[in-house]
Amino acid sequence: MSPFENLGGLLRPELYIGQLCAISAQSASLSLTAAGRNSGSHYLGSRYGNGEVGEFVLIEGQTALILGRMIDARTPDLRHSDTVPRKEKSQFDGIGSIQLLGTVAMDNLKISPGIAQFPRLGDRVYAAPHPFIASLPRLMDAEQSNDVFLRLGSINGDPEGNIEIKPEKLLGRHCAILGSTGGGKSWTTARIIEECIKFNSKIILLDATSEYRSIGGEYVAHLHLGSPTDKAAKSLPCSLPPTSFIESDFIALFEPSGKVQGPKLRAAIRSLRLAALAPSISWNGFIRKIDQSKSSVLTEEARPGVSELLDDPSQPFDVSKLVAQIEQECVYPEGFGVGKGNKDSTKWGSESGEFSYCLALVSRINGVLTSPAFECVFRSTEKSLTAYIDAFMKSKKRLLRICVGGVSFEYNAREIISNVIGRHLLRMARSGSFRQKPLIAVVDEAHNFLGRHIGNDDTIAKLDAFEIIAKEGRKYGLTICLSTQRPRDITEGVLSQMGTLVVHRLTNDRDRDVVERACGEIDRSASSFLPNLKPGEAAIIGADFPIPLTVQIEAPTVKPHSDGPNYQANWQIGK
């Protein structure tokens, strides 16, 4: 039987802390009868602060209970004197301020945001029992299904105050795990993943630093791109073929500049698509144009359906022939006829001299194609990552970890490759692949991949795959869980799409401002707690959590490798 089936089990005389002495629209003040005690009290094995800042309280109203949180505690000035005897200090009253959070129905204890009826002066105030606070996610939920819950942690580390949240409330509207370095966001990410794979879930983890390589079990599969320094025990190498790229990816990758390179690159890509669709008119994989007839090319372009494919940014082509094709595009549009000065519109002319303007582009293309950073794209013979993802969705595996820690940042390789992976997931979602099996995409170090723009003013490319997932993926069964230590580098448009924020300690005021603007449910009183959260402690805020909840996240069974170097062990003299 629940200990809260009647108010006698919820408002305990042992937890009484004072009476209201002032009330406003958003807060109330109370007289703290136990302000002079040297410490809090213990009840049923749990410690209560008797009015400490951050403590949840219940106000016994006339028709309902009011849930609040202590945001301030002080004593009258005359009590600060050192002349007050110790025994009198233990009896004096303090004054505290309560942030009013929501209303608790007296019949079923269901919690709703807002204040149905404001309390009155003299109403009694009690500390909220820890098991009741732990039940807030359930009590705020209108649907009473009890099948799948994720256990994240507890209130103040109290084992009687375990927090369990339904996955649709935590992840169903996208989730962001935010926090400064050392705040515990990696543990939270690992904890959420561990809880999810207890059930029949589907998760793809994009691991940017290899710190989650120790997660294992029969339901876990590991893949890696490139050559990461630290690999999971059974991690398989994979490739990401150029056919997964679209035109904007190559624009971002090769960064054409000026008024010549961009148009020539796009023209070359279009010609190579035609060469792939009509091999009979190609020569050594590309289309010759210098002093050549146009007839065969025009004939193939006029075939039904070909024109649409040539303009399709996702239509594949042989990128290894790109330099040769760019040279072929640098021609006069018309050749010369029999008479001097007459132009022959049926032929292309000779080399126009524009190829010299494309030499910097050619050099970059050759550098990218031979760079170790893109070996997994242009020179790998391993099985395709996209094929592994398709197989994962049909298998009994629940977590697919993709390590991109072995892909360097040279030529923006890691950002572009991660964006390609995100777009593939979005394409699968739009085709209906996740409607029966919802997929959660967990993106570690998300500030490296979201809101990035590559290129110059002429050919700027936006890496926006995960932003689009945040905006429209949910209706297709694809949700995203971001983890970052730099919320200010994530666009507000993306953060505003996050239905739930799990916020660890944030010491940077710009980061806190971004969180406040992104989540309308948080105010200055709630955000003022963020710089002082303990390691591993987080505030859960969001549309499904109108009452911000502070949770001590339970340590994951397999801890991520997020620790820094051990100077004490490695700097000892003699080693």
Features:
575 residues, alpha/beta, Rossmann fold, 3 domains, 6-stranded antiparallel β-barrel, 22% strand, disordered N terminus
Task: Tell me what you see in this structure.
This protein has 575 residues and is an alpha/beta fold. It has three domains: 133 residues; 253 residues, Rossmann fold, CATH 3.40.50; 124 residues, no CATH class. Helices cover 26% and strands 22% of the residues. It contains 19 helices and 25 strands. The strands form five sheets. It has a twelve-stranded mixed β-sheet with strand order 11-10-25-24-23-12-22-19-13-18-14-15. A hairpin with a 2-residue loop joins strand 24 and strand 25.
SSE map:
Layout: E1 16-23, E2 27-32, E3 41-43, E4 46-48, E5 56-60, E6 65-74, H1 86-89, E7 94-104, E8 111-113, E9 124-127, H2 130-134, H3 136-139, E10 150-154, E11 162-165, H4 167-170, E12 175-178, H5 185-196, E13 203-207, E14 220-226, E15 236-237, H6 247-254, H7 258-277, H8 295-301, H9 306-310, H10 322-329, E16 335-336, E17 343-344, H11 359-370, H12 375-378, H13 385-394, E18 399-406, H14 413-430, E19 439-443, E20 452-454, E21 461-463, H15 465-472, E22 478-484, H16 492-495, E23 500-503, H17 509-518, H18 524-527, E24 537-542, E25 545-553, H19 567-570
Parallel strand pairs: 12-22, 12-23, 13-18, 13-19, 14-15, 14-18, 19-22
Antiparallel strand pairs: 1-2, 1-9, 2-7, 3-4, 5-6, 5-9, 6-7, 7-8, 10-11, 10-25, 16-17, 20-21, 23-24, 24-25
Helix pairs in contact: 7-10, 14-15
